[in-house]
Amino acid sequence: MGEELGKYYASADVFLFPSETETFGNVTLEAMASGLAVVAYNYACAKLHITHGETGILVRFGDANSFAASAGELMREPRDIKRIGRQGRQYVSYLGWERVVARFEAVLLSAGMQGRGEAGSLLRRRRLAT
User: pTM for this structure?
Assistant: First the structure.
């Protein structure tokens, strides 16, 4: 399916993702990586990774009329489609595994340091540590 999916993405300019039940939304990131301008509801993956008007178009969650109107407005602006597609692709290029792992590691280390500080002060208050 990967090669076939790539052909579909390559033949498009815009990716409409009106899902109200998505979990992470890999298809949103795949579309952005393919240089497509994405229109999606402002929640889940799209909310995390799209900046409205820059790397995609965000629509208020569940507002189907606004979704259709936003998609229609974008279709009338070919320059915006190209610009948003380019910027979305550039954004997604920074989401490689090395960066994801480094960011995750930083979060874990930060949590560990915070936890160590809180635990240490609690142990000191109880005179279980010096």
Answer: 0.75
Q: What is the DSSP letter of 40?
A: E
d(CA 78, CA 13): 9
Residues in contact with 56: Cβ distance below 8 Å, sequence separation at least 6, in sequence order? 28, 32, 37, 38, 39, 40, 46, 49, 50, 84, 88
Structure tokens at 31: 């579309």
Close Cβ partners of 25 (under 8 Å, ≥ 6 residues apart) = 17, 19, 40, 44, 45, 46
Give the model confidence (pLDDT) of 67-82 as tens digits.
999 999 999 999 999 9
Query: Whole-angstrom Cα distance, residue 60 to residue 27?
Result: 19
